[in-house]
Amino acid sequence: MTHHTQPEGSSPALTGWQRVVNWQPHTRSPWQRYAVAVLITLLAAWLRVALAPAESGGRFVTLSLAAALSALYGGFGAGMVSTLLGTLLVNFFLVQPYLSFAFSDPVEAFWLNLWHLMSQIVVVGAIALMQRHNHALLEATERSQLSNQQLKDTFAHSATGMAHSHLDGRWIRINQTYCDLVGYTREELVRMHFRDFTHPDDLGLDMDLLASTLSGELTHYSFEKRYIHKQGHTVWVHLTLSLIRTTEGAPDYLIAVVQDISPRKTIEMALRTSEMLLRQAQTLAGMATWQADVARNRFTTLSGSHTLLRLPFAELSGHDLMALTHPDDQARMLAHWSSAVQGHSVYDHEYRVVLNGDVRWFSVQAEFERDAQGRAVRALGVTHDVTDRKRAELEIQQLNASLEQRIQARTLALKGAYDELESYSYAVAHDLRAPLRTISGFAQALQEDAPTLDANSRSHLQRIMAASKKMGEFIDGLLQLSQYTRGELERQPVNLSAMATHLLEELASDTPLRQVTWSVQADLQTQADPALMEALLQNLLSNAWKYTGNTPHAVIRVFAHEQDGQRHYCVSDNGAGFDMAGATKLFQPFQRLHRPHEFSGLGIGLATAKRIVQRHGGTLQAQATPGQGATFCFTLPPET
């Protein structure tokens, strides 16, 4: 149901009259309309009988008025119901005797009833037509009011800035979006001209276009301009200005529509900056970008980057590219491209091209855009000239080949010299045994066979025998060193835990009077030469056992720990330790950090241990503090 608001300032009487004038029959249901029509007709007939006797000439007047009222209330149908009911009442119920025909002359009755019916049809139809026209007018008025309100709402609440102004620039109306765009309130803008907040660099063009519009050369114009916000920063807008004319064709007022495009301008500036940096990067890197229409087999370089690769054209066909490709690489390039287009592989390959007789190497990468069926429709790629790198790689390969030959020759020479030196050392050490045994034997025989020698002579003999013995021990050390640096290294699984436990048990059985607490971490496994590993542990554990000889509560530990992704096997004790300042001599043969009278030995054990570890490609390190013990840790890298 349509709702009508009461106009401001109207009186209740006027409102009631308007309700009568604007009454719409369709606002009531049919049974209500027809019931009212019957009641009005009966009431009119009663009044007619009650006020004056019914005569044949005037009896239709009152009921005609009832039909008009019924039509006004209920429309054409209700009016015709009233008309027919009134005709029945006039003919049979207004004149006594009731229910008898009121007319004596049938011809007169016919014409009176016919004339009444025709006049009522005209009156009732006119009333219904008037109501229909009035209803259409009300609907048109409501649509106009609604459209006008929608236009006002669109203007006021539009996300785009809108303003109407007089031809001289004075504002007629401005929406809130326009005010927010420039940062001024509506009251502030009304006192300003658009020139006041237009960027000076854009004002000249704006005024020229406005003059052309006012002169009739343009009906409207659009362009991008800048406003100066109230806070001082620049606001980019897209302005569209239209001139509205009167019905006589004279300029009337201006409509300005402004859209904030500052975010777009920021993006455009960022894109321009990126493109400029990309071009600079491409130039510095010698890199070209391109796209390909897979279906048409056409390749187009972007941003003129074909000049970086010295290609003849910015756009080339697949046939053109194949012609530029080195003959030895054509089949390979075609196979790679076909596989990548079908989605079977990634396109990232290097080929040779021939440009003006010069062979160049290109590294090419591409990604594909595919349709809903997975077919490749477009490729985006990057091509990089890697000729210098390829030439450098070729030179390096040649140098490596030459260097490898020289290294092999040098290695053979060094191995021969090393083997010769080892053989010489072994022979010298072995051959020295015989004269040394002779010296020691004659000195002992002289001592036994000449009991009359004086004390001084006997002292000399004792020194000769002691020196011979010392010399023999040195020779044994040399032979031991020579033994551990000769022969092939055979790596096998070695259980260091079991090996260390066995060696410590032997040391404990050799010196049963000593109280030593020792522990071995379980399951210490490695890949190494078993014989050399036993010699290594023998030297490290013998050292620990020896240098804890003067420690009341001796402790020896065998354990492992991870450091820098590598496993370190350690032998630790709380014995005499040593000063790390002299650690550089620790692993040198026949070098000792303790005096001979403190601890016995030749200084050959740690030198032997280091050589064994080095033969396995590992390292041996020591940490110690005088009087607090020492820790020796070694690594055993896997065989490569």
Concise summary:
The protein is an alpha+beta fold and 640 residues long. The protein has 15 helices and 18 strands. The two termini are 95 Å apart.
Q: What would you note in describing this structure?
A:
The chain is α+β, with helices and mostly antiparallel strands. It folds into five domains: 140 residues, no CATH class; 103 residues, Beta-Lactamase; 118 residues, PAS domain (Beta-Lactamase, 2-Layer Sandwich); 88 residues, Helix Hairpins (Orthogonal Bundle); 145 residues, Histidine kinase-like ATPase, C-terminal domain (Heat Shock Protein 90, 2-Layer Sandwich). It is 51% helix and 20% strand. It has 15 helices and 18 strands. A six-stranded antiparallel sheet has the order 8-7-6-11-10-9, with helices on both faces. A hairpin with a 5-residue loop joins strand 10 and strand 11. The two termini are 95 Å apart. The N terminus is likely disordered.
Defining traits:
Beta-Lactamase; 6-stranded antiparallel beta sheet; 20% strand; 640 residues; 15 helices; 5 domains; alpha+beta; disordered N terminus; 5-stranded antiparallel beta sheet
- Reading side by side through the largest sheet, how are the strands ordered? 8-7-6-11-10-9
Name the CATH homologous superfamily of the largest domain.
Histidine kinase-like ATPase, C-terminal domain
According to CATH, what is the class of the largest domain? Alpha Beta
Distance between the termini: 95 Å
What share of residues are in beta strands?
15-25%
How would the global form be characterised? elongated
Question: Mind describing the biggest β-sheet?
Answer: 6 strands, antiparallel
Helix content: 40-55%
CATH topology of the largest domain: Heat Shock Protein 90
Number of DSSP E strands: 18
Mean pLDDT rating:
80
SS-based class? alpha+beta
Q: How large is the count of helical segments?
A: 15
List low-pLDDT spans.
1-14
CATH architecture of the largest domain: 2-Layer Sandwich
Compute the number of structural domains: 5
**How many whole angstroms does the radius of gyration measure?**
60 Å
